[in-house]
Amino acid sequence: MSKIAASELGTEPIGKLLIKQAVPASIGILVMSLNILIDTIFVGNWIGSIAIAAINVVLPVSFFIAALGMAIGVGGSSIISRALGAEQKEKALKTFGNQLTLTLLFTITFVIFGLIFVDDIIPAFGGKGAIFEPAKIYYTIVLYGIPFLALCMMGNTVIRAEGKPKFAMYAMLIPSVGNLLLDFVFINLMDMGMHGAAWATTISYLLCFGFILWFFLSKNSELKINLPHFGLDKPIVSEISSLGFVTLSRQAIVSITYLLMNNILFDLGGETSVTAYAIVGRMLMFALFPVYGITQGFLPIAGYNYGALKYDRVKETIFTAMKYAVGLGVLVFMGLMLFPESITSLFTTDVEVLKETPPAMRWVFAATPIIAVQTIGAAYFQAVGKAIPALLLTLTRQAFFFIPLIFILPIFFGEVGVWMSFPISDVLATFVTAFFLNREVKLKLNVALSE
Description:
- Helices cover 86% and strands 0% of the residues.
- The chain is an all-alpha fold.
- The longest helix has 54 residues, at 234-287.
- The chain starts with a helix and ends with a helix.
- The mean pLDDT is 87.
């Protein structure tokens, strides 16, 4: 982070600073989400609705491996933000070098494991019946590009920690646009089917990696590491692991959720229900982009000011971010409640899928206005280096509430019970997060200010 950027994080008005950080993050997430959304529309219209279900089976496996990079990135970037705020640049450089080493070691190992056990993993995640073959094609090709995606996700968080949100946005734009163009060429023009969809995705990861590599080699980055920085440092690895474990646990739970949901819905409604969940899942990625953008913008500001002991600014950042995110969440909620039928029709012409998806979508997004409390609350503890509270709050919604509910409610309500589990778990998790965040503000931030 340049001195000017560091000064801005510690001195600029919070509202202005949050917008400056969040807008590029939101645009990047929007384009990345649009990529996934449009990719699914292309696949559904050019290949078929079963192809949508097939990709839905593969995503949790590939994303979990890629999430290793994100976890290492978020954990290390929290250290980098605080180190730069405290003017400890050597620690920031060593952390970045360790992030690279860890990302390569873990992701390559998991990819090898994933390729060896492909025929067992795909059915376990719901790739059964007509879904299995297209899922296997997509999975095998995409997995080769996952280490590059992991490096991109790790590098993107470090770029933000340097205070360069626009470059982080570009890193998300390039593969998204590339993937859509390649989808058109490989699927529509060359009629490569699932092979085309998979190769378009994999090549887009390589494009992203190329840009990330250029950024860190260029004068735009302040983190110029050398060979000794790659050597693992036990205290830094320990802190990266403890903080990154929060992100990894979140993605692990997401992957487990996909596994359970795909299997439960396949048993209750077959391929149609799995396809409906795939469409709703894409909307979860896309529709909440402004809330996630605010959260991404919040992280470096909170981490920097906490490291600089400016607790008044940390408090202001929490409340400003939450206010913005709740307002945006209300707008998202209104759109999804009013137009689920129109949204579903973009993905498929399958009559059964068109019938089942809209009511499911309304259930899933019923608690959208309040999820900002969850995202900002958990992000605060992660930003300030408090790994255990961050981990517990991250696991609260899906591990403690959602997963038990998807087993209990279908007993009484059938398939509708699965969809009801989403808003109920959101409400419960929001109350828990609000309680712990309020206690942290009173016991830590307010006390520190009074001293």
